[in-house]
Amino acid sequence: MPDIDLVIHGHFYQPPRENPWTDEVGAEPGARPFHDWNQRINAECYRPNAFARIVDDAGRIERIVNNYELVSFNLGPTLLRWMQRHDPLTLARLVEADRRSARVRGGHGNAIAQAYGHAILPLCNARDRATQIRWGLAEFAWRFGRGAEALWLPETAASPATLDDLIEHGLRYAILAPSQAARVRRSVQDRDGGNGSGAGPWEDVRGGTIDPSRPYRYSHSDGSGRSLALLFYDGLLARSVAFGGALRESRLFIDACAATAAAPGRQGQVVHLAVDGETWGHHHAWGDRALAYALAREAPARGFHVTNYGELLDRVSPQWDAEIELGEDGLGNAWSCAHGLGRWTRDCSCRLAQREGWTQAWRAPLRAAFDLLRDQAAVFFEQEAGCLLQDPWAARDAYVHVLLEPGEAARARLLREHSRGGLAGEQGVRALQLLEMQHMLVLMYASCGWFFDDIAGLESVQVMRYAARAVDLWSRLGGQPPIGRMLERLGEARSNEPRLGTGADLFRTRAQGAAAPAPQIAAHLLMGAVRGSLPSSGDIGLQHYDAFDVQVQASGHTALVTGRVDLRDERTGAAEAYEGAVLHGGGLEFQVRLRACRAPDELRAAAVALHGDLPHRSEAELLMAMTARFGEHTFGVEALLETGRQQLLTELFGDLVAEAGRAYAQLYGRNQRVIEELGRLGLDLPRELRVAAELTFTNGFERAVDRAHAGRGPADFARALSVIEQARERGIELDRTVAIPLLSRMLEDVFAAWGLAGPGGGAPQERLSATVMTATEVLDLATKLELTLDLHRPQELYYHRVISSGWAARLPAGDRAKVHEIGRRLGFASRLLEQAEEDPAQEAFAVQEASDAPEPAPGAPQPAPVASGAGRRSS
C-alpha cells in the first residue's frame, strides 16, 4: 500500500467552571476524589497524553512519547488558563509538541487556535463573531509563539458568514464534519487540467456522502476569489474511535484507518478524523496508550504518513469547490446537531438522554434573554466608552491582552494605545470595567450553556453567572441594566425539574448567588487571620490584596482579629479598601463587621479599645462594640470563599486533630510492649490498640516523609524508611491512603536528588549510591507491604534523567547495573535500557522538579500499575 497521509485531530475542551467574580474553580462533588472536573480529566487525559507509554507484550515500557507531537490539536482558552495555574508542566509539553512538530513538518505545528469563548459562531452577531476569532487568535499567538493557520469552530458550527470571517482573518483551513457539506464541484482553474474552460457541475453530497479523502476550497462570498481549504473528516472512522471499539487496541485503530483508505469511491490519499480529545483517556481508559502505539509504531509500519493539515495542504492543494449545508433553520450547521443549529436555539430533539416529559423548550428564552442583555449593553457601552476610548469596539478586541496577562503593565498599555488623551485614575478604571463587562457578555454565549438537557445544569447556570457578573458591573458603572425584562424572558425557560423553577429563579439563586463582592473577599481574608494564616499580601483569584495593621488576640476559646484589607482587581485596576473586626467563638462561629476604610487613626483607636476589652467583656458585648464601630457590612462563616476555605477549616480543627493524635500516641506508648508482644505471637490486636498503633506510625511516617521531601538527603530518606520498616516488623499496617502517595513522593524525591540536569550532569558517587539504595528500599517496601505505588512521575523522571540524557552510560559498570535494575523495577523494558546505554536518545523533554508537581487529589484512586497495560492494548 502506498503511503497514505493520516491526520488525527483532537478537540480538547472543558466547559468553563470558574466563578466570574474570582476566576477560581469551585469544588465539584461529581468529580471526587478530585477537586473539580478539570483536575480529574487532566489526570485521566491531558497529562497522560503528554507522557504516553508505549509498552511491549509484557506490559513493560519501551518508550514515553508526547502524543501532542503526533496529533493535530486545539485547546480552549479557559482550559489553557487552568493548566497554566495548576499543571504548567503539561502546558509546557503542549507548547513543546507544537514546536517539535513544526520542525519536522515544514514549519507547520500541530496546534491550531479556537474561538475564544466556545460560542456557536453562526449565532453570534458580526461584531461578537469577530471578537471571538480575534481573541482566540491572540490567545494562540501568546501561548504558542506563532500565528495560527486555523481556528477550531466550536461544535464545528459553520455558516457562509463564519467562513468568510475566517478568510478575512487570514486563516488557511477549517475542519468540518461530512454532514456539513451540501455540494461540490471540480474547481474552475482545475477543470480539464486547468485550461480555464469553466467549473464542473455541482454534485449533491448532502447526508454525509462527500469524499473526505481530499481537501476542498471554500470561496469568499464577495466574489474576490479569496478562499480557505475545508477538510471534511471521515465520519464513520471518527464514530468508531469515539463511540465504537477502535480504541480497544492500537491494531484495531489502524485496521479501521486502513479499511477507510481502501473504501470504494475515494479519490484521494488522505485519511483523517476529528474527535473530542478527551476520547483518549477520559472516555476510553488507556486511550492515550492506544493512540501512542498506533501513531508511533503501527501507522508507519502499515504505510501511513502521520502528519497535520498544514503540511498536508503544502502537498495536496484543493482541486474541488465546496458549499456547506445551512440546516433546517438556514443559519448553518454543526457536528453535534442533526437539525442545523437547533441545539442552541430551540427544542430540536437533540439531547443526551431521553427522559419522559422532558423538553428543551428553555433554550429559546435563554438565548432571547441574553440577546436582550447584549444589545442593550452595547448601547450603554458605546455611550459611556465613547467618551473614554477612541474606538470602544477596537479596544474590546485589544482587551484580550489584559485577559492574558492581568496586571498594571497590560492595563496601562491598553489605555495608552486606545484611550482619548490618556486616561488615568478613576476614568481609566471605568474604561476597563466597561471592557470587563463586555468580556462577560462574550463569555455568556459558551455553547455548553445550551448543549445539555436542562437549564438547571451546571453549564447553563455557568453562562447565567457570566450574565449576572455583567449586570453587576453595569450597575456599578451607574447604568440601569434591563434586569426586569431579562428576567421575564428567563421566566419562560422552565426547568424539567419543577422544584427548581425557571431560569429567572436560577438566575437569582445560583447565578447572582455566586457573587463574591469585595467586602466578602475582605471578610474571607480577615477570617483566615484567626489562625495567623494571612500573609501581608497575596492574590484571591484576580483580586490582589494587601493587609495592614492586622492584630490577632486570643482569650480562652475566643479570638479577635482587627485589620485592614486593600483589594485591587488585576483586570480593571478597581481598588477598594475595608477595615473591620472578626470575632471567633470557636469552631464555625464567626462574626465579621466591616466598613469602608477611613482615617488610619480611627482603625488603630478601635483596635486598641476592642482588644483591651477582650478579656473583660462577653462575646455579646464585644459584638455590640464591633457593630457600633464597623457595622456597615455583616458576614458569618458562609462568607468564606471556595479558595482557601478548606485550608482555614483544616487549621481551625487542627488543634482538635493534633490533640487526638497525641492521645492515641500516649495510648500506644503506655501499651507498646503489650502491642509488640501480641504482634510477635501473631495475635490480633484489640481494635482500640490497633487504631492507636496504626495512627501513631502513620503520623510518624508522614512527618518523616515531609522532612525527607525538604532535605532530599540520604539520611532524610533513611529516617522515613526506618519508620515504615518498624511498623512492618510489628505487624502494624499503615493507612494506605496516606502511605501510597507518600512512598510515591519519596521515589520522586530520590530521582530529584540525583540532580541530573542533562547529558553533562552528574552526582557525587556517595550521594548516588545512597539514593540508588533508597530507591531500591522504597520499591522493596512497597512490595512487602503489597502497596501499588503511582509510578508515573518516577518513570517520567527516570526516563528523562537516565534514558534520554544517556547519563547512565557514563557510570562505572557496577553503578550502571544498579541504575538499570531500578529501571527494570519501574517497569522499563530491558531492551530500552540496553539501547539507551549503546545509543542514548537525543530527545530530552521538559521535566520540572518533583517538588513543583501538582499534588494528587487526597484519596484519589491510584493509576493502574504499569504491567496492567499489556502489549498494544489500551485497556
Helix content: 40-55%
Main sheet?
A: 6 strands, mixed
Radius of gyration: 31 Å
Tell me the span between the first and last alpha carbons.
29 Å
Strand content: 5-15%
Write out the strand line-up for the largest beta sheet, numbering strands in chain order.
Answer: 7-11-10-14-8-9
How many strands appear in the DSSP assignment? Answer: 20
Structural class: alpha/beta
Contiguous uncertain segments of 5+ residues? 191-197, 756-762, 840-875
CA-based shape: globular
SS field, number of helical segments: 31
Mean pLDDT: 88
Fold and architecture overview:
By secondary structure, the chain is α/β, with parallel strands linked by helices. β15 (537-540) and β16 (543-555) form a beta hairpin. α2 crosses α3 (88-104) and α27 (736-754) runs antiparallel to α28 (765-784). The protein is globular, with a radius of gyration of 31 Å. Mean pLDDT is 88; it is low at 191-197, 756-762 and 840-875.
Search tags:
alpha/beta; six-stranded mixed β-sheet; six-stranded antiparallel β-sheet; 31 helices; 20 strands; globular
